[in-house]
């Protein structure tokens, strides 16, 4: 008996099914679990974002893209993917900085409330707002 296992693989197992479809569903679940955890181990940094820390992830993005902090907070960017990046203030941001992030971490203190767009010179483009690899720090 053939069932539409490709589209119905994630449905609950039916106790009336034969053993083979049940095993197939379990195997699909394991594959999905492996895919879901691959992001954190991608590229050898193992960076975990916090309330004041942004990671680079997957070579072309900041994670999280948006971070909200209180005035006076020092935000840290950590290289989580082993690829060289920059953290550069975008045109129109009320604060300017241009930090190279080849490895390890860089930091910048945000003193005044506002919206601070930034981007990576290697994987993004400047603008208002920037595009590609970019992020926003909201200070409030
Ligand atoms: Cu980059």
Quick gist of this model?
The protein has 140 residues and is mostly beta strands. The protein contains one helix and nine strands. Mean pLDDT is 79; it is low at 1-12 and 17-44.
Note the topology:
Elements: H1 19-36, E1 53-57, E2 61-63, E3 66-69, E4 73-78, E5 85-89, E6 98-101, E7 105-110, E8 114-125, E9 131-139
Parallel strand pairs: 1-4, 3-9
Antiparallel strand pairs: 1-2, 4-7, 5-6, 5-8, 8-9
The structure holds copper (II) ion.
What does this protein structure show overall?
It contains 1 helix and 9 strands, in the order αβββββββββ. With 140 residues, the protein is mostly beta strands. It has 2 domains: 1-37, no CATH class; 53-139, Cupredoxins -  blue copper proteins (Immunoglobulin-like). It starts with 18 loop residues before the first helix and ends with a strand. Strands 3-9-8-5-6 form a 5-stranded mixed sheet, with no helix packed on it. The radius of gyration is 21 Å and the shape is globular. Helices cover 13% and strands 39% of the residues. The structure holds copper (II) ion. Copper (II) ion is lined by residues 85, 120, 122-123, 133.
Summarize this structure as a short list of keywords or feature phrases.
single chain, 4-stranded mixed beta sheet, 140 residues, Immunoglobulin-like, globular, mainly beta, disordered N terminus, 5-stranded mixed beta sheet, 39% strand, binds copper (II) ion, 1 helix
